[in-house]
Amino acid sequence: FVAMGDWKTVTVPVLSSDSKNIFQCTSENKISPPSMNSQVLHLTLPSSKSMHSFFSAFCTEENIEQSISYLDAELTTLGFPSIYAESKGKELNLISVINCMNELLALQNKNLRAQEEVEMQHLKLGSDMDHLQNCYAKLKEQLELSKREIVGLQERDRQLQSKNRNLHQLLKNEKDEVQKLQNIISSRATQYNHDMKRKEREYNKLKERLHQLVMSKKDKKIAMEVLNYVGRANGKRGAWRTDKTEARNEEEMYKVLLSDYEQRQKQLLVENAELKKVLQQMKKEIISLLPPQKQKPKERSEDGLVLSDPEEDIGELNKENMWELSCETVREQLTNSIRKQWRMLKNHVETLDNQVSRVYSGALNEKDVISREDHELETEKLELEIQQCKEMIKTQQQLLQQQLMSPCDDDTTLLLQDCYLLEERERLQEEWRLFREQKKNFEKERRSFTEAAIRLGLERKAFEEDRGAWLKQQFLSMSTDYKHSENVTAPSAFLGSNLTDDAYLLGSDQDNRLVKSTSQQRKPHCMLSGPVSAERCQTPQYITRNSYSAASKKPAGDSKPNLWVESGKEETE
Amino acid sequence: YRLVVRDAGTLQILQLYTCLDQIQYIEWSSDSLFILCAMYKRGIVQVWSLEQPDWHCKIDEGSAGLVASCWSPDGRHILNTTEFHLRITVWSLCTKSVSYIKYPKACQQGLAFTKDGRYMAVAERRDCKDFISIFVCSDWQLLRHFDTETQDLFGIEWAPNGCVLAVWDTCLEYKILLYSLDGRLLSTYQAYEWSLGIKSIAWSPSSQFLAIGSYDEKVRILNHVTWKKITEFEHPATVANAKTIVYKEVEKSPSAETQRLSFPPTRALANSLFSTQSKYDISQVPVSLQYIKPAADRANPKVGIGMLAFSSDNCFLATKNDNIPNAVWIWDIQKLKLSVVLEQLCAVQSFQWDPRQPRLAVCTGNSKVYLWSPAGCVSVQVPVEGDFQIVSLSWHSSGDSMALLSKENFCVCYLERDEV
Questions:
Q1: CATH 2.40.128 fits B239-254+264-419, yes or no
Q2: Would an 8 Å CB–CB cutoff place B59 in contact with chain A?
Q3: Could you tell me the pLDDT band of residue A489, with boundaries at 50, 70 and 90?
């Protein structure tokens, strides 16, 4: 079927246009299945172009079967089920044919839609392309323009630079010329000075010569005629010029200079003091103007002991006022602190200004109505606050008045007066309590110490008696220089024994002295030599003084000091 | 060649003396008992006593010549400067002693006495170097002698407190040196180099400020604590500051009372026709003043600040810029800015402050004297027939009157005190 091939190529364009024709054809097929051979693909559409011939050309009465088989082959290759019935006969499976046709129609629709889309896209792309081409053309033009501009500007820049260079060159030339002229002037000036000096020397020589000539004439005319000499203005006689007068003159001169300097210094001091006062006042005012928040972080950062900056400065400077210090560091501190405060004030004012301007500009930006509303709201809030505060103050005042007014007798008024000092009182009471406790503790300790001392004394006595007995025995055994040795050695032995005994109990020098005195105290009837008695007079005083100090130094120390403590106290009390 | 002494209040002639030659210079002694009359041509100085008219004294310098003569502060010595500044002779009226000071400097202000009259500074020049000698006036003993670092010393002036001596150099070099009474150099000030330098200086009465007027039309004020410049005052041709008051002298057109013209014209009328009245108007700033730029090739050009004076209460400074010769500039020293400018019709000849109040008297070479005070400005016509060209004026120490001098005449102007 050569014709088939031809129909193949032709059918492709046909698909795009005439879907209606196909529908018609199917309807035709339905109507007359048996008469397929005659009326198949008979187009009765009014606007069929050349399809009529195509449709009739493909399948005619002669090649129905071939066309069917061809169609079947095509459809199967396309993946459709066969249009033949089950048996491989010439019977058409109408249902499958219809299905196939439906499928084909659907496919055709799909393809048509796809084609439409593609065409749309194609159009779009075409218009985009046009647009881009236009843009490109414009940009190219702009680029050209700007390139030309750049060239022009570069040219101008070059010109200006060359002008600049010329001017620089001129300036340099002028400067060089000025320098040259200055050099010329200076060299001429030196030359001129030199010449002047030469001329002056000549002139001096001439003057001298002239003077000599003139004076040599022995002019008697140079004289003063006076009727009578006049007294001095101050009535005194003229004095001879001596070394003393020279010294006096020097002294006077220095006095004059010194008095002048002193006067000036006084003036400067007064001025300084005034300025310092003014500065301090200014500082105080600036601090009062500043908001206190800015100073709090400082306080927190520093230790509790250190005051915040302004307070510290004020304190310092008040001190300064009293003592009128004017050393460098204090002055610097004052100026630095003022500068700091002033800067803070300035910042504060600036922030305020910014706020005001922001508020102002904000008000301008938004409509007036809204800002006014806000303003009114705020003012209402503030007024409420003020009311509340006022009420609080009133109530507090009332309470205060009640407290002040209600008591009418003296006691309660006194009490009330006292209650203002309640805090202090409580503090004092606490301190009293502490003090009394301490006192009690001290009393206890003292008692224990005295007991211990008494015990010790008793022990000592016993010990002494033993020793005395033992010594007596010794002396009795020695027998020869009994009295003599007793007189001489006894006191010393006593002292020595006392010393040796007590020395190792108490280590210090102080205690050694005290040792001697103990012996004197406890045995006032002891026969000691003269010099020692003198000591006796002196040391009691020392004891009393030392006893107090000893008591204060070692309250819980040795028993010996405490003994003296007691005795000292007894003496004085 | 007469010397006439009149009473200051009544102008009654008290004494009349005759001198030997034309008197060039007269000076009262400090106790007002003697008058010295110097005749430079003859080289003679004659001294007259007011108490004893018969007393006379004549000092003849003879061939030494006489260039200058002045009293010492104690009123009993006369210092004569001989010709060519060869020496200064100190003649005593009490004793027969004569002292000589050698090599005095030939400059404008070579001799300066302290205000209390204790010390005298003399500028000397030896071997082309400048020196200063300080003498004690009581016994003419040399106290200090030191050299100065000046090229060519131009002038010296004591501060009113007598402790600082200002020494300044020639106008070719702007340099001013401040020495203490004991000869130590306290400070040097040099504003600029090469251009013409200092023209005039003035100490303030409290010795706090030193005003230096220079050829660059500026006044620089130094303070006595650091001797550094605290401000400079400019004198431009245009006054632009809105806070400055400019008084301009304008001529009052004479009231032409034509109906009362008579023939021959009375003296008063004649005078009034010739002498035009003037008054002051306040000009609106900015005011441009008449500026003169003299030829640059002549020596001692009339440029720069030629006159400087502090008022006696230390509040004002009056200056004159020679480039603007018709104007007097008054500066407020408390605020350190220009307070008033007086613009006159003629060139200002001289001005002087009242010794008691801040009142300035100005004369411009015509027959009017101008007075300025912070209350205002007034122009006073000297009621005299004919011409009376006031060349200089001088205040009485009480501030109640002033003497106005012309070339050949003088008159005394009495000022009424305000009885408040």
A1: yes
A2: yes
A3: very low
